[in-house]
Amino acid sequence: MIIAKTGLTEISVQFTESQESFKIICSSEELADRWCQILTALTKDI
Fold this sequence. Notes:
By secondary structure, this protein is of the alpha+beta class. 33% of the residues lie in helices and 37% in strands. The protein has one helix at 29-43; strands at 2-6, 9-15, 22-26. Strands 1-2-3 form a 3-stranded antiparallel sheet, with helices on one face. It is globular, with a radius of gyration of 11 Å. The two termini are 18 Å apart. It comes from Candidatus Enterococcus testudinis. This is PH domain-containing protein.
């Protein structure tokens, strides 16, 4: 699990056992969606 804190926003990323998917828990829905897009782009080529 990776936790990033920026100001009042806390972001938690949980990878599944297969490392092929993850879920994002964030205090801001909009920010969680954005992080999902970023992480999907980053992990697509791995």
